[in-house]
Amino acid sequence: MYVCVCNGLTTRQIESVAGDCSSTGGVYRALGVEPRCGKCIPTIRDTVSAMRLQQPEAFASEPARV
Fold first, then answer.
1. Which value, to the nearest 10 degrees, does the dihedral of the CA atoms of residues 29, 21, 6, 10 take?
2. Distant-in-sequence, close-in-space partners of 27: CB < 8 Å, separation ≥ 6
3. Which of 2, 26, 47, 57 is the 20 to 30 Å CA partner of 10?
4. Is the pLDDT reported for residue 60 higher than 60?
């Protein structure tokens, strides 16, 4: 499913990098794009938060920046 129409980003693309990112901005950087209209930010934020809950040991030393 498309999450970001402006950049053509799908759920799978976002999930593929969200586990390695600690913020929404990190997801954009990892995918090599910039936010445009911002309507996708809440969905990306939720995805990053979900990944943090699934892999808490990977983010233990980092503060949440979502």
1. 130
2. 14, 17, 18, 21, 44, 47, 48
3. 57
4. no
- pTM for the complete prediction? 0.75
Report the alpha-carbon distance of residue 1 to residue 55 in Å, rounded.
23
Please, which pLDDT band fits residue 20 given cuts at 50, 70 and 90? Answer: confident
Average pLDDT estimate for 9-22: 90
Cα separation of 12 and 1, whole Å?
A: 8
Instruction: Report d(CA 21, CA 51) in Å as an integer.
Output: 9
Give the length of the chain: 66
